[in-house]
Amino acid sequence: MKKAIRKHLTLIASGLCLTLAIALCIPATPVLAAENPDIEVNADITIDGYYSDWNGLPITPITYLADNAYAIHEGQIYTDGERVYVHFKMNDLYRYQMQVQQMTFEINGRSFAMSVLPMTPDGQIDWAFYGEYGNCLPEGTHTNYGVVVDYTKIVESEVAYTIYDPNHSTTTPGDEIEFSFSLEDFCALTGMQIDTVASMTLFNVNIGPEGLKWIGTPTGAFVGVLAAATICGAGYFTYKNKKKKGQGHV
Ligand SMILES: [Ca+2]
User: Fold this and answer.
1) What distance lies between CA 48 and its chain's CA centroid?
2) How far is CA 91 from the centre of its chain?
3) 4 part of a folded domain
4) Residue 29 CB coordination number (10 Å)
5) Which of 56, 87, 218, 250 could form a disulfide with 76 if both were Cys (CB 3.0 to 4.6 A apart)?
């Protein structure tokens, strides 16, 4: 009998050790504090020109100092610790194509110029395309774009840039973009050492002064797990963004 109990306890102890080992190896659970510090977010963003996967993530209104509630653009930022994800949506009344070629990315107190520019198939900045179509893209979702840091450094990235109406009528949806880039590649190109992302803000000054802010837990896996566990224990809740395709695509 004692032997059976001992065996049972050994199994339980082994299970606990295995659980702890797994917990220490899983990636950090990021905490998004852009607008609501009480929400822990684990989003599932795909850069594909379908934008419903951003539903539920905090939105930063970008007003360009307008007081017209219908003339407010929207921005969202998110990171899973490996990539940074960004979404901008122009309001329907805006009569021009969205500008994305001149942004400022601030991370852990440092500031970098950031652009989204057309790319050639072999991964170079496509200035010919930019000259011809850069400000007059045809209808559709354009993926021949990439993220550039400090004007020349091309970061491993994905872009989906949607033009619903090239005429930008006030009765049709405004332009929309989602893009992501690799934090590891960003660090390699800029010489930054990012063990922890303490703060991150993206400004797209051409559409408004408000920055998209992310303030998260450290991205290191071990510290992140502990931080996430502490936060969960404090009564926070997890929001799992469920991707719904088929909305907002042309
Ligand atoms: Ca998407």
Assistant:
1) 13
2) 20
3) no
4) 21
5) 87
Residue 52's domain spans which residues? 29-240
Domain total of the chain: 1
Task: Quickly count: other Cβ atoms within 10 Å of residue 18's Cβ.
Answer: 10
Cα 102 to ligand 1 centroid, rounded to whole Å: 22
Cα 46 to averaged position of ligand 1 atoms, centre (Å):
4
The Å distance, Cα 150 to ligand 1 centre, comes to 26
Q: What is the pLDDT of residues 28-83, one digit of tens each?
A: 334 344 444 444 566 899 999 999 999 988 899 998 766 677 789 999 999 988 99
- 16 within domain boundaries: no
Distance of alpha carbon 170 from alpha carbon 147, whole angstroms = 29
Q: Provide mean pLDDT across the span 220-243.
A: 32
What is the b/e burial string over 105-143, where b = at least 16 CB atoms within 10 angstroms of the residue's CB? bbbeeeebebbbbbbeeeeebbeebeeeebeebeeebbb
**Biggest alpha carbon distance in the chain?**
83
- How long, in residues, is the chain? 250
